[in-house]
Amino acid sequence: MSATAAALSARARRRRRLVRRFRRHRAAVFGLVVSTIVILAAVLAPLIAPYNPTAEHFDATLQQPGGVFLLGTDDLGRDVLSRIVWGARASIQAGVLSSLLAVAVATPLGFVAGYYRGWVDPVLSRVNDVLLAFPFLVLAVGLAAIFGPSLLNATLALGIAQIPIVMRIARGEVLALREEDYVEAAVANGAGDATIMIRHILPNALGALIVQATVTVPTAIIGESVLSFLGLGVQPPTPSWGVMLAGGQSFIAQAPWLTLFPGLAIFLTTLSLNLLGDGL
Question: Hey, is 49 helix, strand or coil?
Fold first, then answer.
């Protein structure tokens, strides 16, 4: 067997071993299944939603769950199930895109701070510490208020608010990895700083960054719901889980399903992503 074939065989065995270990982690499998269902619902919303999420049925206002409207209707007769399915789009978009923004900006900053040290690390770290002094949601709400209410601005605010957290993780990984023997060997062989960070440090730090991303996505989903609830995110009548909670709070005694079902959607989505992150 050639060296290339042996390497491919070893990689295949390693992948099979990782899959077996993951499948034994029941909570992680549950998280993967639920999060996959939510993502598919968001992508296929036009096909699987039984009604137009903004269509009003004034002859069926505040109808209880069951019958034609499986999860009931709101005060304007809009189908709750359809609005939850379409609302998943806003939550997934805000969660994924804001996390990608945070990782894309914070990773280079963390790598530079952790690798070069000197005066660069103290300056970037002190600025990061100042941002970390603000709670995530407080910072996100402040930025969203400055940018203006919309889903795009809410996504930007959530992404910027998560940069300090991801940067701290990236810096910590570089501080540990830069002392490894293979990095010192690369330096001895004349490799440049960019080569060392991209070819040697990044692949080994990627696991921690991926796990951190699975943690920031559910945090961003909750953040989007909070911003929409406060009127700083998705604007009515566009469906969003936060918008549904805000609209249903006035009818919580008369129609508790208006807040129960979107609340369960937020809970199950964030729980599944957190369980998936723990499994990974």
Answer: coil
